[in-house]
Q: What sequence folds into this?
């Protein structure tokens, strides 16, 4: 499973980081005079490359991701960090298509794990595991901040993979280690991306159904003349939870369902006054 021996380099200054990053088409720049210390580990597999980086200091990185496939990454730890102009925190994961121009600024160091792999390999593994990946998650660069429990799990699992990489001094004698690490990281990737795909499908369904929902709400309010209506009754009528109801109204109408019903009642009153005899 190992393509070549694991490459390990200690970082004792920005020069070491520049030298180690040259082959990965990354250009690191030191932002202050503080020390840059850490390590880089590259583990070529038969169908991808696992890489781990940890270094202190104030550093910016600019370059191109993935010359052979897409890159899936997990941010294990960091100080103040910005990746692709987006503020990130530990637990953030991202996917970057082949040839994506990447930029990052780390204040206080960083600690990350990456896997450069062909998209079709990731899709095949997802299918084997019973997951469905949406087409956009593999073709669009994005960063995702998961829930705190999932973010902690990603960091823990990534840390275990890193520990195994450090122990793999003679990888040719440990093909089972390479296979286990590959599958462990791929499983983290596909479960994370499958959750993103599921959320995107829910949002698409919500968007398709939201206009119909507002029409149903309008007819329901008209039938009741806008009187004696509350959010709980409305959610029961639509057979949806309060949280889904609020999210639908915020996305479609830009206001809460309570305010929507209040505006409907006020409009009913204005219409009634306008049609009253003598305008009274």
A:
């Amino acid at each position: 499973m190992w393509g070549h021996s694991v490459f390990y380099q200690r970082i004792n200054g920005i020069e070491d980081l520049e030298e180690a990053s040259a082959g990965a088409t990354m250009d690191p720049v030191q932002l202050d005079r503080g020390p840059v210390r850490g390590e880089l580990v590259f583990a070529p597999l038969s169908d991808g490359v696992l890489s781990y980086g940890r270094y202190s200091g104030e550093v910016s990185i600019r370059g191109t991701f993935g010359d052979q496939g897409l890159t899936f990454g997990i941010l294990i730890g960091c100080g103040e960090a910005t990746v692709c102009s987006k503020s990130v925190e530990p637990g953030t994961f991202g996917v970057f298509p082949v040839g994506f121009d990447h930029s990052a600024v780390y204040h206080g160091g960083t600690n990350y794990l990456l896997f450069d792999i062909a998209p079709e390999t990731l899709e095949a593994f997802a299918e084997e595991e019973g997951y469905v990946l949406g087409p956009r998650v593999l073709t669009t660069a994005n960063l995702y901040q998961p829930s705190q429990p999932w973010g902690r799990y990603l960091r823990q699992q990534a840390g275990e993979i890193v520990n195994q990489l450090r122990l793999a001094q003679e990888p040719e004698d440990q093909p089972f280690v390479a296979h286990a690490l590959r599958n462990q990281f791929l499983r983290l990737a596909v479960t994370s991306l499958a959750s993103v795909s599921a959320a995107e499908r829910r949002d698409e369904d919500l968007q398709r159904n939201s206009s119909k929902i507002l029409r149903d709400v309008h007819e329901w309010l008209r039938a009741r003349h806008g009187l004696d209506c509350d959010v709980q009754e409305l959610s029961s009528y639509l057979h949806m939870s309060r949280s889904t109801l609020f999210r639908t109204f915020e996305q479609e109408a830009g206001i809460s369902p309570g305010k929507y019903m209040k505006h409907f009642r006020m409009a009913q009153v204005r219409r009634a006054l306008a049609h009253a005899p003598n305008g009274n």
